[in-house]
Amino acid sequence: MRRYLIRRLGQALLVLWAAYSLSFALLSALPGDAISNRIASPDSGLTAESGAVLLRYYGLDQPLWEQYLRGIARAARGDLGLSLHTAQPVQDLLADTLPSTLALTGLALMVGILLAAVIALAVNYLPSARLRGLFAGAPSLFASVPTFVVGILALQYLSFTAGLIPSVDDGSLTALLAPAVTLGLVIAAPLAQVFGASIRTTRSQPFVHVLHAKGAGEGYIFRKDVFRNSSLPVLTLLGLAFGELIAGSVVTESVFARDGVGNLVVGAVNTQDLPVVQGVVLLSTTTYVLVNLAVDVACPFIDPRVLVGVTS
Amino acid sequence: MGPTRLRTLLAVSLAATLFTAACGGSGDARDTASGEPVHGGTLTFYDPIQYAAWVPTASIWSNSNVAGNVAERLIWQDPKTGDFKAWLAQSWEISADKLSYTFKLRPGVTFSNGDPLDAETVKLNFDQHGSGDEKLGIPKDSFWTDYAGTDVVDAQTVRVRITKPNAAFLQILSNYRASSILGKPFLKLDLAGQGQLTNWVGTGPFTVEKVAGTTGVTLKRRDDYNWAPEGSAHQGKAYLERIVYQSVPEAGTRVGALQSGEAQISRNIAPYDEQTIVDGGGSVIGIPVQGEVNSLKIQLDTDAPTRDVQVRLALQAATDRTEINKTVLSPNYPIPSSALVKGTPFRGDASSYLAYDLAKATSLLEAAGWKAGADGVRVKDGKRLEFEIWVAPYYQVAQAVLELLQAQWKKAGVDLRIRSASQAEYTAAEAAAAKATDDDWTFEQGQTSTAEANVLRVSLGAGRYNALRFLTPDPTLESLLDAQAVTFDPAERKAAIQKVEDRIFEQAYIIPLYDETQVFGLAPSVHGFATESTGRTWLYDTWLDK
Fold first, then answer.
1. Residue A109 has pLDDT above 60, yes or no
2. How far apart are CA A33 and CA A21, in angstroms?
3. Which residues of B touch A83 (CB under 8 A)?
4. DSSP string, B380-433
């Protein structure tokens, strides 16, 4: 187990380095940067002379490889550089916006899991075939309606017409609810589909038939055997769904005008604010890697068979 | 949310605008303010942009609706008349050689940290604008040219010196982007420190209470404020207790929130949304933004057919600005008749150059050798008369206007191809084109806002922004631009600006599309709404009825 963990941590560091380097290469390949573009744009009112002071301050006048090495050395110390647009330290910007995004994605995750569980159970256990069919269609519906459409409709009806929720973030829980549900729908879809199918597969296993033959009830079998046996694929998927959540928060935060990492990166991409984009890439990569690491570590506890190939 | 959605909206917009036009203009809250003003209340302001880049010497326009309410200037420019009024300076004198400006500061003015306003602080501010501070990473302010220095005459008197006379200098000292006076603790900060609004220490009627990243700012009233600009509707503290600015990029939310009562003011209302707001009991105010008109600036660093003045004149004649106004804009946008927006001081008259005349356009193109081709597009030496244009992402109405222009130019046999792109793609392509000389970047849509006719020199002058991308400057235009800047007699100055406009339009260097206009939606409870001289909010006199 320890060797497994060390190997996974090593991989995680490699992934982080790759994410940093790749995003640096991609963003550097774009013509210009936030400041050079401002100098070139006649609308900005920044002359070449003034711009040169900024370029020197940010170290953008140095050769690319030097910028890269300095950047990666700084990043290793937890210093992500300064935003080219707001001049604020990137780690401060992230620290300011992260709580709001965590609240949103956290609640969305709960909503998503709850919805997925309800659908998966309904699809398998409802007595009426028609009702089961109805629930079975829900995931494809959730997956196929884009986040911004749900968001705009929610705003139109719940906010402007009914006045139930505020249209922008005012710090209240009600303001968080609509965006969290909007985002929750997106990840509920694959989770429900996989969980539903997994329950179905488990229920058709011979050991479940044996339990039935012994006289155990559906509820007992689900709690004691089916749930644990069918949750492994869901857990793995949950790790992947986290990426979906991060991506979805970009759109959701835009539509609901919420302060957050998603909104930060939209602004940064628009202004080619390279350090901020990179900071967000690093942050999401770290989170993604950690979540998936946690999932991988949790798997053996749920199903010890996973470790068979590793420890031998 | 790309071009497809925009196009759908545009289809709706067309119908809605025609309807708006038929219903006439909209109310002006400044005139309809009723009853006695009351103190108190929180005003929520929805804005499409994110609040960033607060460094005073390298500001951008996006913060302007907030910044002006926190920090103030020595003098106030009346938005209606363009006249300069006393503000932090109670009087000023200009030397006979027009090279030094002496200001007597208003006594009793304090910064929000308690520091008194004195000559030393003013000097520190102007030194950073005029010269920058390399050690702190503070760039020199591009609005400030030919700065010689500032002298502290005594605690309440300050003298600013420049090396060349500049008829527009007083306006620079009144400009919210160029000359805001901030407190000493702020001026000691480096670029990163000055880039944060929470560090701003100003003398304004409001102070910064809370900043939520780049998406929200809360301002709180300063109760001991008592130095409003001369000519303000009242003195003493502001009426509003709080202003909550919120960045809301969704246009639909900005309009809906006015109706649901969540916001009291929304900025950037699209022409097709104006009627919705009026129907909901609110009002729509269009404020022409003084400075350059929104125009296509011919990029003279390309090999395009627009290097031929006859072609440029033809495109000018093929542009029907009245139709643009009636079809995709609203009566809130003045139809351009000059290189400068309606109301800009010393603005000339170019209406004779800007008349729509398709026959003239056709004959000019014929004479220049562009003959009608098989598909209706003109051809010369086997080359089609076609251009590419990128939709400027900064202007709400740009795409709709360009699509109509495409149809208008088609009638003259000109093929205009429109490219829509994200802001990042746009700025990258724009920057690349600025460096290259063999690109297809033939037109650039844009304008610079400054309530001074000298904005033409700043924008078009080859030594300044060089917005026309002259490879070799036009000596006639350059000398006219320079001449107006050193002409101080008002009547002579107006004549000098007219000469500049004549040169611009004889050469058809720019193709005006519409007068740049800031459109605000106001809830019925808002009274006394006002802006400074370039259409940025000044909420000191604004109040809410209960």
1. yes
2. 17
3. 52, 195
4. ETTEE-EEEEEPPTT-TTHHHHHHHHHHHHHHTT-EEEEE---HHHHHHHHHHH
User: Using the 8-state DSSP alphabet, how is residue A272 labeled?
Assistant: T
> Residue A301's pLDDT is what?
81
Helix (H, G, I), strand (E, B) or coil at A146: coil
Nearest neighbour of B213 by CB, restricted to A40, A96, A271: A96
Measured between CA atoms, how close is B274 to chain A, in angstroms? 17
Greater model confidence, A297 or A17: A17
Give me the amino acid identity at A218. Answer: E
Higher pLDDT, B399 or A263: B399
Judging contacts by C-beta atoms under 8 Å, the chain B residues touching residue A51 are: 139
Residue type for position A151: G
If one counts every other C-beta atom within 10 angstroms of the C-beta of residue B23, the result is 14
Fold for domain B6-287+518-544?
A: D-Maltodextrin-Binding Protein; domain 2 (3.40.190)
CA nearest B143: which of B170, B177, B190? Answer: B177
What is the DSSP-derived secondary structure letter of residue B206? E
Say what the pLDDT of residue B13 is.
Answer: 40
- Cβ atoms < 10 Å from Cβ of B10: 19
- Pick the residue from chain B with its C-alpha nearest to A254: B249
From the CA of A171, how many Å to the nearest CA of chain B? Answer: 11
Sequence ranges of the domains in chain B? 6-287+518-544, 294-515
What is the interface size between A and B, counted as CB pairs within 8 Å?
173
List domains and CATH numbers for chain A. Answer: 97-307 (1.10.3720.10)
Q: Has the ipTM of the complex gone over 0.95?
A: no
Question: Of how many residues is chain B composed?
Answer: 546
DSSP helix/strand/coil, A173: helix
A46 vs B498: CA distance, rounded Å: 28
pLDDT for B25 equals: 34
Nearest CA in chain A to B459: A42
| Closest in B142, B196, B259 to A45, CB measured | B142
- The residues facing B89 across adjacent strands are B105
Nearest to B202 by CA among B67, B90, B59: B67
Fold of B294-515: Dipeptide-binding Protein; domain 3 (3.10.105)
The C-alpha of B406 sits at a distance from chain A's nearest C-alpha, in angstroms, of 24
Residues of chain B under the 70 pLDDT cut? 1-34
8 Å CB contact of A36 and B214:
no
Q: CB neighbours of A200 closer than 8 A, spacing ≥ 6?
A: A123, A124
Of A57, A255, A267, the CB nearest to B52: A267
The model's pLDDT over B33-81, given as tens digits with 9 standing for 90+, comes to 468 899 999 999 999 888 877 888 887 777 889 999 999 999 999 998 9
Q: Is the pLDDT of residue A111 over 80?
A: yes
Give the per-residue pLDDT at B360.
97
Average pLDDT over residues A62-76: 89
Select from B325, B328, B315, B323 the least CA-distant residue to B358: B315
